[in-house]
Fold this protein.
Amino acid sequence: MGTGHDYVVLVGIDGSEASQRALEWAVSRAAEQGGLVRAITVWRSDLPDAGLRCDGDPRQGPKQQAVAALTRVVNAVSCPVPVAGEVVEGRPAEVLQTASRDADLLVLGSHGQTRLLRPVLGQVAAQCVQNAHCPVVLVPVNGPATTARRPQSGLVSRSS
């Protein structure tokens, strides 16, 4: 659960359209609950593009690419609630799982829709669904993201 008396919605941002949709959903849910959003972008120095799904400037280092990806996604979304952005080095699933200890909800974007769960979720989302310390909502890239609703078809949630 979130710390203090604010409802905290944690959202993973990787620079993709799916993560932007997840942020839109997270902002809507936080507004509905009178809470705030904590947006985390995780980068890795051992991957050529910092592990992000975005068009980063190859002249930038991996951390700067992560900051740029987070900034671009947050700036693209109307945010009527506080959004705290954070850039962390590490393995995305591990960082998000640890951060979920202080959240009421973890929101991630899915990267497609097929009958196979892992390709839809991706490795990070699959690990978070299994190991997060709070419920997880997966927002489909082509589904509605502007209203916070109970998870429906296309969304997966899990309580710990």
